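Troubleshooting log. The previous run stalled partway through. Resubmitting the same two chains, unchanged.
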Amino acid sequence: MINLEIFTFKWGNKYGPEYVNRLYGSLLKHINVPFNFTCITEDISGIDSDISTLDHSDFDRAFNAYPRDRLFTREKLELFNYSNSEHNLLLDLDILIHDDITDLVTMRHEKPTYILNSGVFSGNVIRGYGQLCSSLVNSSMVGWSKDSGKYIYDYTIQNLEKVMFTYSSLDRYLFYQHHRKGNINFWSDDIFYNYNYNNPGHVKDESKRIALFNTSHASRKDDVYELHQCSDWAKIIWESYDRV
Amino acid sequence: MTEYDLIYEEYKHEVRLRQNFIIKHIKTFILESGYDIVSFIATNPLDMQELESVGISCKYYGIDPEYSSESKYILCDVIFDNPHLEGLIVHLNAQKTYPIGKLYTGEFIIIGHSKETPGDCNSLDSCDIIIEQNNITKVKAKLDLDISNRKYHIVWGSND
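Second attempt completed without errors. Output:
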């Protein structure tokens, strides 16, 4: 039997419990092997009782001597230390899965696998590399097998002062220190698209399986929506994942 | 050329202008230091014919793949990759890195400015901050320069 652990983080009040519950509903629909789903949070209210929960504070213990705006979303790294199951997956809450992903969640990863921020940003990033401003790495969906992510966790802990000093964002750290050294892989580019930044925007891409929203990456603020603000096909699909 | 190509070329031109202005001011320091090897860090390769013509060997350390084919460019991050740096260490973008003087000992010329972009992690508002961060115990010179509405702070000194 396959051993598959899937995690998500929910902290603060940006996203309500419906994001956790509907993400779980989407996984039940689009993964056809058994799995455990765990939400790491400081507030379990409203979360479906079938979803396991862990205390968020346990996932920042190694980093909490530093302000929250250093290596933002650093808790994600702690998962490499916490879970060494055969198959592991981390998902952000602001994604919409609309096709089967069983093959993705059961594949083996020699290195942690991240989303490649392609399209509008990539050319700019490579040419402006020395400015250290951008990132090709997007950690909205991360896959790893057994202890394949442990090296990145250990390296971060060993270099914590330098890492925290240098990087305000986890994705930029991963790009400039780990993508540069070949420590991470990318998912294939036929899986993801961006609801807000694709051109044309807000259109469902039937050839792909997961829509990203990534409003916090916005270089513009107009015409950019979270899942709960959508009023189109995305809302219909998202709400269909409610478990009655 | 796309709109971004034009913006990028303009940016590179601006960087070269600023670098040339800074180099003009620190050349005297480099010549007076007496070192025959200079390690320039966090920069693209520079035109240093004037130094090389008097026997000073220049090496450039940075992580930008755009320059990886240049013979004197060593593709590495001096803060995280721990390369062996030789001679006088000249850091041209100290606002972008952890303080070099916390990791290396020797003689430095360190140049930086206040935070302007997300890539600037180390806001340097004065020469005194550079001196303190890098444990510079012997200051040979310090200088503030205004270039295109940006104030650069330059410290020449050692921490050994």
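Takeaways: The CA atoms of residues 24 and 146 of chain B lie 13 Å apart. The two ends of chain B are 50 Å apart (CA to CA).
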